[in-house]
Amino acid sequence: RSALGRKAAFSALSILVALLIAGQAVTVYFVYQQSGQISKLTKTSQTLQLESLQRKLPPSAKPMNKMRMAMVNMPLAMRDLPLAPSSDRMIMGPVSNKTEDQVKHLLLQADPRKMFPELKDDLMDNLKHLKKSMADADWKSFESWMHKWLLFELAKNPQKDEQKAIPAEKG
């Protein structure tokens, strides 16, 4: 009688394990079937985010077709680029003339999940906030860029009067 009970318990346990495995297989099957729809929804969401950003930008002072001649000498990064290369028609980028809007659009086109901090204080407070929020390697890279930018600005606008050097703030 005890051997019969063990066989029944073993059979019940085997059926339970088989049902659990079958349930996991069915779950994996349905998730795999939905992965195409998930990726399609992700692309749609990214496109909608870019369109939302484009709608928030102020309209240009001039129509785009009149500005084409003036944009011949503009750097490639500042030109309007299509939002999605896969679309049949060319969707133009932001129509704002502000450099910040053009660069933000270009960066979001490369990575729509990129976030930009709200910097509402003066320059020094904003830089301190950025230093706290950025990774150390990113901050060092940013410092290097600021140094090169300053050299560029100094070379662009030579100073006639010698001015005192501004000491660096120790932090």
What are the SSEs and their pairings?
Layout: H1 2-56, H2 64-67, H3 99-110, H4 123-133, H5 136-156
Plain-language structure description:
- With 171 residues, the chain is mostly helical.
- Among the domains are: 42 residues, no CATH class; 42 residues, HLA-dr Antigens Associated Invariant Chain, Chain A (Orthogonal Bundle).
- 60% of the residues lie in helices and 0% in strands.
- The chain has 5 helices and no strands.
- It is elongated.
- About 5% of the residues have low confidence.
Quick one: overall form? elongated
Kindly report how far apart the N and C termini lie.
82 Å
What structural class do the secondary elements suggest?
Answer: mainly alpha
Number of helices, where a helix is a run of at least 4 consecutive DSSP H or I residues: 5
Task: Give the tally of β-strands.
Answer: 0
Major β-sheet annotation: none
Helix content: 55-70%
Q: Which regions have little confidence, pLDDT < 50, spanning 5+ residues?
A: 84-91
**For the CA atoms, what is the radius of gyration?**
29 Å
- Based on the structure, what is the oligomeric state of the protein chains? single chain
Portion in beta strands: under 5%
Order of helices and strands: HHHHH
- Mean pLDDT figure: 77
